Amino acid sequence: MVTAISGPRVLLKQLRETMAEPLASQARLDKIVGLIADNMHADVCSFYVLRDDGALELFATRGLAATAVHMTTLRLGEGLVGLIAAQAEPLSLENAPSHPAFAYRPETGEDPFLAFLGVPVLRAGQTLGVLVVQNRDSHAYGEDEIEAMLTTATLLAEMMSTSDFDALIKPGQDIDLRRPRSFNGTGFSDGVALGQVVLHDPRVVVTNFVAEDTDVELKRLSHALDQMRLSIDQMLSHGDMQSFSDHREILESYRMFANDRGWVDRLTEAINNGLTAEAAVERVQNDTRARMMRSTDPYIKDRLHDLDDLANRLLRVLTGDGGTLGRKELPDNAILVARNMGPADLLEYDRTKVRAVVLEEGAAISHVAIVAKSLGLVAVGQAENVVAMSESGDDIIVDGQQGTVYLRPTPDMIQVYVDKVRLGAKRRAHYLELKDKPAITRDGVEVTLLHNSGIVADLPMLQDTGASGVGLFRTELQFMIASRLPRLKEQVELYSEAIRLVEGKPIVFRLLDIGGDKVIPYLRYEAEENPAMGFRSLRLALDRQGLLRIQIRALLQAANGGPMKILVPMVTDAWEFRQTRLVVNKEVERMRNAGHTVPSKLELGAMIEVPSLLWELDHVLPEADFVSIGSNDLVMFLTAADRGNPRVAKAYDPIALPRLRALKHIVDMARRYNVPLTMCGELAGRTIEALALLAIGMTRLSMSPPSIGPIKEMILGLELAPIRNSISAALLEGANGPQIRDLLLDWAGRQGLVI
Ligand code: PEP
Ligand code: MG
Fold it and tell me: In 3D, which of 488, 356, 478, 367 has the Cα closest to residue 417?
């Protein structure tokens, strides 16, 4: 007959002492299962570890045949142990052999045991192993015992990541925890990078698992919870969304979790079982994660992220870990791994050390992807679960072309990619050779290739690409990395530096385009339901003209008597453009009156990225010195599909008939009014899309610097006239005609273009 357990708290203390004892690794593990068996009054305690080949190997036992240790294995899903590992859930049985999944292993001598309790050993919701106790007599293990086993399993999971544990692994094998993993995401920025994981939001490392004093731990938890609830409430009531890059809904769900009795009760119970407050948070989060990860409901999956964030916040409060360590000490080949990050977060890193960015979320034309691209970083997004699987310092390979990520790659895989990197270097060398060649098609159409840029540091790349200038300088990026509003003088310095670096080539400065996902931390905004369509960009600038005037003043001064091109973002109607022109004119007047030299030639351009403007081009074009299409926003608004939301961002082909017709309309109108037109959305930098643009008559393309080489190569091999004719016909033919993309791919194949 089984008597009550002597308490998990006593057990945890004993286990902690055992961990510190100078024992050989196997002896330590044997002692640990012995202590668990004694404490639980069990006849058997066994510990199985999930290996990288998917087998669960018996690593230690008290009660089963000692000769079975490191010999007995079960496959994932096989037997009761395999079932627990696969489902990541505890299993308690009064009569184990009668369970349909029971698998008999004669070498273990386990037949006489009826009562069975097994729990998964978890880390970040992933199964690392299984801990089992058994008794000869039929007996129902109670909730307390299950809880005690789960608590003990938390400690074992921790032990498995220590180097001491390595001695237990057979040569040539590894445990699943360190298994190489691959993730299929979406390539955001081309190229290949090998390096080491740097977690953008490093997991808080819990080092102290066993409580000295349970009451103290309960108080710590209660205090930390209060503090966290308070800060969530404050954020909600202030509408201060900046410190959180996401929106209100997330905060609301944080609040819901933080006040959830079930969650708090589970934390309290884990502490009562002997864990410290931080270990309790980790333990409960592990279980919750394991359950939610197996859900296929996208709503539950989203909530999982929220809960992860919340647990991490709570851990930070409890451990006093600010979470900035990873950012300070970057390895030379850092690969940033994050659930998501804003463009400003990325810009904060030392770009000489960062090679790539891997995100669980994001979309190819979200601003963080654009910034990654403009910095020449490889980037992959939508790599599900990559954060939980990664450890800072892990080896990692990122393939931006395939959209794949290899975590802890095998030596073979590393070799494949070392070769690829070499090939990439060769290709870059080839593009470098093309830099002085003008981009002219085989049938003589000259195309102007320009850079999209946003930070001064990437301007010298103009020398490597040979581009004709900068078609879009996104001024807001500098504002996003500053800790306060840059003053007039600082802005003048920045724009002057940009002008100096382009060495006489033209550069188009776009006025501040803030809002949507471009958040400026020190500017307060009201929380909005729909920030992309909210009080942003030009709307904000015209409403609060102080900021706009200072920026225009700074640009005019930076011209230093030379030419200046200013681009106005998010123009929704001609009136707004006219208003901006008035502000510019006033500033020019002011300058002249003060006796300063005004720019030799001042051009003001409008961005065409809000669909409404398409039907007012005959008002805007006569007033604009140049125009530029922002296809990222234009396509988003035309298709009502958020550019930053991966679920919908790729759903509508931007060069399918309706979108291409809209673009063609702009091209025709710009030609009618003889206004220079540039494409500066991401479309311009993708070969097949760029081909579509050339086919509808565009000849000025502005793109991220790494795209210049491939686009130029495509242009050099191109005979444009027949493609123009074919696409014009397809646009007239309408919906019954062939798909534009297929048509272009067919042409590219026929002309042997490198796509
Ligand atoms: C665009 O919208 O296409 C564009 C070029 O501007 P941004 O990506 O900065 O919004
Ligand atoms: Mg835009």
Answer: 356
